Structure formats: C-alpha cells, structure tokens
Amino acid sequence: MLYREFDGLVLDYSRQNARRDTVEKLFKLAEAARLKQKIHSMFNGDRINSTENRSVLHVALRAPRDKVICSDGKNVVPEVWKVLDKIEEFSELVRSGSWVGATGKALKDVVAVGIGGSFLGPLFVHTALQTGKVCILANVDPIDVARNIVGLDPETTLVVVVSKTFTTAETMLNARTLREWITAALGPKAVAKHMVAVSTNLTLVEKFGIDPNNAFAFWDWVGGRYSVCSAVGVLPLSLQYGFSVVEKFLKGASIIDQHFYSTPFEKNIPVLLGLLSVWNVSFLGYPARAILPYTQALEKFAPHIQQASMPLYFPLRLRVSMESNGKGVSIDGVRLPFEAGEIDFGEPGTNGQHSFYQLIHQGRVIPCDFIGVVKSQQPVYLKGEVVSNHDELMSNFFAQPDALAYGKTAEQLLSENVSQNLIPHKTFTGNRPSISLLLPSLNAYNVGQLLAIYEHRVAVEGFIWGINSFDQWGVELGKSLASQVRKQLNSSRTKGESVKGFNFSTTALLSRYLEVLEILLPDKPLSLL
Ligand SMILES: O=P(O)(O)OC[C@H]1O[C@H](O)[C@H](O)[C@@H](O)[C@@H]1O
Asked: Where in this chain does the entry annotate a coiled-coil region (predicted)?
C-alpha cells in the first residue's frame, strides 16, 4: 500500500508516477548508495560535512536529556541542555517582567535580527504557532528596519542578534543600527539590558558589546539552515510562547529523528519522501517541487525549505533544501553527471490555486506536496452551515491531488457538451504526481515533526546523490563580490574615486548609481531612525 502512518501523521504517496516495483527499485538504489550507513554516520557524529570538516548533529539539539550523542567522542547532549536550561530561565525572567530594561520597565517586544538559517526557521515556526496576525518583517534595506521599529519603544524592547558566525554583513549592519537606536535613547549602558545574542562566536559577541552572560551558544556541528532547534529558534520562540511550548516542538522533531534512524525504509516517512524526490528529479526529469500547505499558518514553510534569506522581527505581544542540495559536484569533488537538487517553491492553498496552479495542471509537470491539517487552529462555523470554513479549505486539499492525477479527457468534456473549440483548453492530461501529508493538528509538537521530516528528506536525497548537503560554498562567491562593491562605493563616496576593477557592464551601472546618488542625496545623511 502506498500509504503510511506514524505517530498521528499520514503520508499518501499513491499519486506518484511510481508503482510498487518502482519503490522496490528505489530501495535497491538506497542500498547501493549505502543510505543506512550514511544515516547512521550522521547520528554517530562522523564528520560527514567533509568540506568544512564538521559533524552534522542537529538531531542532538532535540535529543532527550538522557540520550548520548557524541561529537569527537564527547557527549554533546549535556551542553545542549545547559543552553536550553539557560534559555528557559532567561525567557521566564523576561516574560514575567522580572528582567527589566535600563529605565526599570519590563520588556514587551522582541526584535530578532538574523538572516538565512538564523532567520527562516524561527520565522516558519513562529508563523505556524501564531493564530493571530502575522508580524511584519525587516530586511537589511534601511527603510524596512525603520518601518519595523515604528511603534516600538527602546525602553521596552529586547533585541536578539542571531548569527552563527557573528560576521554576516546584513545581520551585523542591522545589529549596529538597532544598537544605535537603543543607545541614542537610553545611553551606552542600556545594551546590557536590551541586547542579547545567539552565536557560536562568543568572542565576537563580546567585542560587539553584548555581555557574554547574555549570549546563548550553539556549535559548529549545527548547520545554519538546520539551526532552528538550537538557541537560534528556541530563544526567540521561548520569549514569545514560553519554553514549555518550544519543548513540545523539540519533542515532535525528536520523535521523527528516532523514526528516521530506526524504522525500516518501507515504513520510514523521510526515507520514502527522499527516494521519491530522487525518482522525480533524476529519473523522471522534473526539476521543481511545489510545497502546498492547506493552512495559512504554514505560509513560511516553503521559504524555510527553500532556505531564502531576510532579517526578522518578533513582537512579544502577539514572526533547506536548495542550499543543501543545490550542488554541482559529488562529495569527492567530481562534477555530477546528473542534475541534483530541486527548485522548491510554494504558497498556502487555496491562495496558490488562484495564481500558479494553472501551470501545475496544464503547463509543466511539477510534483506537489499537499500538506493538510485535520484540526484547525481556529475553526469557524457560520450560522446555518454544516461544514466549517476549515472543511471548505480541506475540500480543496482533497480535490487538487485528484485533479492533477486524473485530469480531464476530451471524451468527458464532450459528454458535458463543452463546445469543440474549448475542448483543447479544458483538457488536462493528468498523471501529475503529488504526495499528501495529513497532520492531526498544527500544534508545536506537529510543527516539530513536520520540520524534521523535511530536514531528513533533504538529507536522504543528498545521500543518494552522493553530494554534501551540509555546506554552501555557492553562497560565498556572491558575498565576496558584494564586499568588493562595498569597498568601491566607500572610496567613491569618500574620495571621489572612479569605478575600476569591474567588468564593463558593472562599471557602467555602478557609475550611474553613484552619479544619480550624487544628485539625489541631500547634503546631510538622512537618519531613518
Ligand atoms: O548565522 P550567520 O552566520 O549570520 O549566517 C547566516 C546565513 O549566511 C549564509 O547565507 C549561509 O548560506 C546560511 O546558511 C546562513 O544561515
């Protein structure tokens, strides 16, 4: 049966372009690729991220206290829990109003600043847990920062700077901007009460001026895009929802870790999903995947799985795959003779149905992940209606996979008296693959399960393709070119130096930018804060 259940979750993969014997062959492929050994290597703390010489142990971040998971022969679980305990204590102090700001007032708002993995995971989980309005986000664009602190009072705001390296240009710029916002209003000493940090680089945290006692550590065996279960996500989310809620999220992820590690492949949800993705990408040649949650609360799930980047803002009152598997060489550095990775995109249903589904139904073949939830976070029954608004939403969740799988034939259209000229336009070939994943509800525990399923699915794909899913060298090239441009802008703006050392096209565009800026920028620099 192409249907699996685990711990309240249901996976239906009967609408793939794969038969039972295809799945059997994929298990053989897994065996040939030594998938089981690779999974065990990851959990054993082997340095499977070989280009960075690091273990990949995000599973340790959500392991129960008594579990033993070693990196370099040392059990890392006690260190993990030391930080979790510190977060619990700190977030309770802030939430109860015992931690006061520089002027003695309790803190009401949290602004968390980060980018990439230090942003998207917390944003996804925050958006999933929040039943009310989704908060506004801030980008490195100064106007966004300015807009997002409108209405916030430095006296009652806590800034959490989230950066694994504590060197990322965008994050550090935003952190400096917010430091200035706080110190201008409350004086330099206020940083101690209004700014905390999450990082692996505690030396730079201290250099920045944040008290090391107010820093929450994580470790180089946690990849940025796999860091939401570290202090990166746990601190801001505990400040927002309380530690006990975040603990449930960690438990949900941990139960999937155990399932992934020990369940035979035929019943192993992340393994089945990973193998089917490899089938779709490498054998059927479908380069994209649509992630379509039928719940608005998962609107930031697809961006997290893509691993895009933007800074974030969390009002306390009440906010992985393309970076991982977007590789062109094998783990041994040999150019791949096939395409790896897929283009992930998505929107919650039914919104997506009114924008890009036409392409999915009749244009390109794009395997779809339909994600549905049985119990709505906010059920609404209108007077006189038997079905709830949520049932209406879920009707679409059930209908769309069939529309894709079965399509509509010319014969059916003829029997419906559709006019001849419209028949080609209304014909749908069907045979378009999808999976359906049904969660019992969208509480913190289920969100943890969902996260871990997708994290491990990405790992399975990478293990089969023989690539390193845990490094991201492609990101570095853009960063170093941006830094050259920044230097040029600096020397042009301060010393009037002309643009040099770039290709013709960039030189022309950059010169034009500087020329127009000269005309448009007023004499005095604008302060947006
Ligand atoms: O947490 P940071 O060190 O500031 O890094 C933030 C992000 O930087 C880059 O974009 C990396 O590709 C991401 O994986 C990382 O999450």
From this structure: none
